[in-house]
Structure to design on (466 residues):
């Protein structure tokens, strides 16, 4: 009998934002998979999860390349998938942990498809997103009434960014560190720089809130930074 | 000494999607405020919260009109605010509960501003949104890589809906029951009806998933229905 594969969104950083179901699933894990990137943010998911794991759990940190290339022979994606399949064949309960929500810009969202396509059942537990946490902390609604909300990686196509800045009252810009200088210029060109608030490492002990982005040194913008652009009035 | 005012997002419906912090705050409540609408969905927030409340908690169900009109003398908004202020002056710990996330299309997002403007501290605990839950259940990512995500109430301005359907690969349409027939026509006109999946009462015992919207009777679409439109490939 093959094992079970779960994905758990552990929330944006505050350990209190784990869900009850997430805690329950973490407690079932024989193997926990923590994705690693060069940016070293993801081991935080492990720190959040650790108090809820069994004592004898096996923790595997796996590196997933930014580019999704499962077809490529001997790619890291392919190898990781095969490792997980072998563990499932041993009947192990495997829990993949991910910051925020598993279906919002996560490595997991690719992996769950690979595992599912290989014929294994997958169960995913949603989590609190970083932008919801940010809005709660700032006391700034993401969207009200009939307003639309647009969530964009700061690295998205330029015409999409332009379109959003021209037409959407509420915009969340994720991964704002990647190209902060050009992003700020875009905001200024659209006349919306004054509407922007940036939070770095939201909900973490070293969280920082920036209400004026105009003087900020791009090199000082941290990896986990999100900008909320909100038309006033 | 005045009391404390909290808002807690209890998640989309599954009691397991409450956060640990949410549970902690619910346990502190002297008074719980459950918003009521004519649609009767919100008392579900109370059902989710109930196991975590003190035995002697006071539950107040408050009706908040859809239209936000706090300035209007003797409006329900004004009266509710005054009731809450009086309780805060008594030193009560008040917890306002809300389905999903408190900053995503909720009555709470208006109320927290009123309470804050009156000089009382407000603490908000984010929650899992219905669209994150829906994506996890379907195994369909909301957004990956550089893709944008657009969240719209189905009742938003027509030009915004057109713009989104033309330009965004990933679209979440909330409150899809409000004008289902015209919404479906819009999807068809944009050539995107085949990409649409609708979930009604996601995560609830009577949840329904619709992968073909073409034959659905508009009058049968339930209040808590969300459509995910996702460009394939």
């Amino acid at each position: 009998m093959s094992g079970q594969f779960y994905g758990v969104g552990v929330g944006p950083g505050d350990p209190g934002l784990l869900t009850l179901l997430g805690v329950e699933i973490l407690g079932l894990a024989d193997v926990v998979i923590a994705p690693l990137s060069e940016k070293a943010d993801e081991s935080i998911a492990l720190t959040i999860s650790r108090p809820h794991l069994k004592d004898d759990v096996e923790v595997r940190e796996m590196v997933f390349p930014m580019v999704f290339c499962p077809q490529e022979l001997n790619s890291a994606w392919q190898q990781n998938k095969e490792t997980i399949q072998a563990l499932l064949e041993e009947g192990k309960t495997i829990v993949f942990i991910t910051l925020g929500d598993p279906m919002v810009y996560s490595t997991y969202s690719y992996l769950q498809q690979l595992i599912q396509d290989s014929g294994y059942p997958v169960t995913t537990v949603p989590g609190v997103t970083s932008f919801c946490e940010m809005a709660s902390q700032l006391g700034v609604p993401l969207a009200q009434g009939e307003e639309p909300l647009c969530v964009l990686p700061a690295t998205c196509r330029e015409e999409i960014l332009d379109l959003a800045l021209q037409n959407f009252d509420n915009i969340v810009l994720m991964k704002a560190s990647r190209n902060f200088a050009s992003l700020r210029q875009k905001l200024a060109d659209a006349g919306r720089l004054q509407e922007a608030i940036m939070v770095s490492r939201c909900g973490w002990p070293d969280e920082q809130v920036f209400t004026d982005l105009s003087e900020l040194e791009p090199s000082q913008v941290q990896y986990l930074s999100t900008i909320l652009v909100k038309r006033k009035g």
Chain A touches chain B through 60 residues (CB under 8 Å). The longest strand of chain A covers residues 4-9. The radius of gyration of chain A is 19 Å.
